[in-house]
Structure formats: C-alpha cells, structure tokens
Specification:
Length: 73
C-alpha cells in the first residue's frame, strides 16, 4: 500500500522541518523549540550558517496549520 499524506497526521515537527526546507535547510534531529504562546520559536543546527544555527518563528492557525514563518536575521 502506498503512503498517503493525511492532513490530520501532520505534526508540529513536520511543519518545522518543512519551514526549514523552504529556506534550503535540512532539519534533522538537532533542533530546539520554544512555545511563546502566539508562535513557536525554533533553532536548528546548520553548518551552512556562520552562527552554526538558524532560527525561525512559526505561526499556526486555530486548526494547527502552519500559516507563516519568519526567519531571524
């Protein structure tokens, strides 16, 4: 049987990895998340970054879908 994408199975971890991928970063197991209430901040280890990591703020709608992300400069 072929794997199918099911929106109900979509997790915050998957959203985090997808947001990073859009910025050209592979998010493996080395990341930290912090819940700020209105958004989740994530810090991902990245060899491509001079700082050694990249950070994003992730925003979700009331259904838990990722609607926007902002990369820290």
């Amino acid at each position: 049987m072929k794997n199918q994408f099911r929106p109900s199975d979509y997790t915050i971890e998957m959203a985090v990895k997808e947001a990073a991928r859009y910025e050209g970063i592979y998010a493996g197991d080395n990341y930290v998340m912090k819940d700020h209430g209105d958004y989740i901040e994530i810090c991902i280890d990245s060899e491509e970054s001079p700082k050694g990591h990249v950070s994003f703020d992730l925003y979700f709608d009331e259904d838990g879908r990722l609607v926007r992300w902002v990369k820290h400069s």
